[in-house]
Amino acid sequence: MTHTEIIKKNADGINTKLVEAVIKKAQQLSVDSEIINRRMLLDYLNEELQINLKEGLYIKQILKEAYLKTSYSSSIQKAIINNILDNDGKNSVYNPNRVEQRIEALEIQDPNLDLDDFKLIEQEIETVKEVDGNFEIQTIQQNIDVLKPKKEVSITGRLKVEASKKHAFEIKKEYNKIIQVHEKVKDINLNLVDDFDKTRNKLKLIREDLLNLLIDLFGDQIKSSEPELFDVSQINWESFEDSYAKLDTYFSSINDNVEIFKEAHQQHMSAVSMSGKKEFNNFLNKTSSLANAGRLDKSKLKGAAASAAIGFLVEGGMAVIKSRSDANKTIAQIELDIEKMKDGMRGDVELILNDILKLGRFYTELKDKLIPQLKLFTQKAVNKLIVDISPLYEQIISNHEIKELRDSNKLLMTEFRTIELELIDKKEQVDFNDLRHQQLTEVVDFQKVEYNFLLSLKPVKPNLFYKIISPKKSVNLYNETLIDWYTYCKPFIDNFENTQKEIVREVELKAENLVDMNLLIKRKENILEELNNNSRNIRTIFGEKGNKTILKDLLTHIKDFTVSSKGVLELNISKELI
Fold first, then answer.
1. Which of 199, 271, 524, 548 could form a disulfide with 117 if both were Cys (CB 3.0 to 4.6 A apart)?
2. Which segments within 481-554 are labelled E, that is strand?
3. Cα(501)–Cα(105) distance, rounded to whole angstroms?
4. Residue 417's Cα: distance from chain center in Å?
5. pLDDT tens figures, 211-246
6. Through-space distance between the first and last CA atoms of the chain, rounded to whole angstroms
7. Are 39 and 87 in contact (CB under 8 A)?
8. CA atoms within 13 A on the CB side of 435
């Protein structure tokens, strides 16, 4: 099975329909101001077109086609970029302002290489230059310094407590802006590094394609006779973004370290599940007992609900404060919490400003050294290919049999590289499956007690005794109670059961992804075997019919290219900046 048969078997024939469906969805996302991830887009496409597509990198190409087709609507194009994100929620699936990963094998006889990637990189350099993280953080700090709690006159002290509490959350909100500024500065710098790497990777692949040509013509012995050409130990770079250290900020654990936020977080979590609200459960217990007794009517239901509402207000928030003395103690505790938060914030600001300085240093190294060197060499490489190497290659493929084999190798190598990227993506999909499975399982475990409780509240039909003494009233009460149960309880139960189904689905998707990974790995092995067979046939044919006088010149020019390119490819951001 080829890569297309494994990943895209249901997609190729309906490409136009997929593009149109994406445009329709993007228009809807723009109107609704909604953001979805790649998985959600795929679910939409499958439902909209009644198909069964697998998730894969080809979705990016569909989005690209949709973007290019909607030049008539800036809102749709913006939605394609900004409202459809990768599953990790960090980056756009398709962004025309970012450098694309290049995988196509080189057309040596017609090396049509443009330098548009460097135009995108120049734009990103300007974006980084325009964002002054130091200034933005200083402005936020000044805003925090002028924040004061609102003065309140309160007999019980409750309003003063609420004012202090609100003040703490206002400071936290500004504190969060500092964290966001750092993330913004880090992201635009790491985007620049990533696009530099992708641009440099294009040069690396050209080098690889030229070396594969030498292997086709000379055989594997060229590796031992010209070892310096095939030494790639220094140019297999890792993802800079993956290796960049994540700051251990105080803000990341503020809900655990500061009591007021810990309490608020716990209240929020309780509100999500409802199972932690004692008075709400009391309300449900009352309605349950009334319903089971066959005596539930609207007045009693309203009475139970009103009682529960009062109880909830008493149990929740700051309404538990009963005296000015208690209020003063609470305000003092909140003030201590605020000081604790500000201490943590000062430490985080120092960490963040130091990190922004480090980002600034490797931005300077990229802008002033690495990018200019790569651009200069790429321009020379294009000239070398066109003037010296392509004419010699044209003579080699003048033999029709050799040309067919070389064209086959070009397609196979492109597929091989596609599979390598697809395997990385599949690994990320498996990680996403595991994360979703964990999150959904936690939700189910958290809500299980409440689910069972609400399920037990479903009213049962009146027994024979009530049917005999009050046939009409008992049936009406049952129907009214059933309507209330479907209104207030059934949505929670449906959501819980759908979550259980989603857990099963994640297990199935992970299994499917693992099967696909095994198939892709097997296909890679088959491709290597086909490449070797083609290479042997090329050597045989060229040995019998080829003009061997061109081999020496070809080797000389490719050697010049690969040796000189190695210096540029080995250049990396200084270790001390990582």
1. 199
2. none
3. 43
4. 22
5. 999 999 988 888 888 888 887 655 655 566 666 778
6. 41
7. yes
8. 8
CB crowding 302-338: b at 16 or more within 10 Å, else e: eebeeebeebbeeeebbeebeeeebbeebbeebeebb
State whether residue 148 is helix, strand or coil: coil
Residue with the two structure tokens 């003579």 = 395
Per-residue tokens: 226: 């010209």
Q: How far apart are CA 211 and CA 228, in angstroms?
A: 11
d(C-alpha 65, C-alpha 16), whole Å:
9
Domain boundaries of the chain, sorted by first residue: 1-96
Residue identified by tokens 């994100």 is: 85
Q: Which residue has the tokens 């004061």?
A: 148
C-beta atoms surrounding 141 within 10 Å:
15
**Chain centroid to CA 547:** 53
CA distance 243 to 366: 17
CB burial of residue 366 (10 Å; 0-12, 13-18, 19+): buried
Coil, strand or helix at 92? strand
DSSP lists the bridge partners of residue 37 as: 85
- The pLDDT of residue 406 is 95
pLDDT digit string (tens) for 482-496? 888 888 888 888 999
Whether 451 and 493 have beta carbons less than 8 Å apart is answered as: yes
Task: Please list, in sequence order, all residues whose beta carbon lies within 8 angstroms of the beta carbon of residue 267, skipping any fewer than 6 positions away.
Answer: 316, 317
User: What's the pTM value of the predicted model, to 2 decimals?
Assistant: 0.81
Pick from 537, 527, 536, 458: nearest CA to 492: 458
* Residue ranges for the chain with pLDDT beneath 70: 114, 151-158, 232-243, 264-327, 462-474, 571-578
Q: Which pair of tokens denotes residue 510?
A: 């992970």
- 200-203 — which CB contacts under 8 Å span 24+ positions? 200/374, 200/568, 200/569, 201/101, 201/102, 202/102, 202/113, 202/117, 202/378, 203/374, 203/377, 203/378, 203/381, 203/565, 203/568, 203/569
Per-residue pLDDT reduced to its tens digit, 265-295: 566 555 544 433 343 344 344 444 433 443 3
The SS3 call for residue 463 is coil
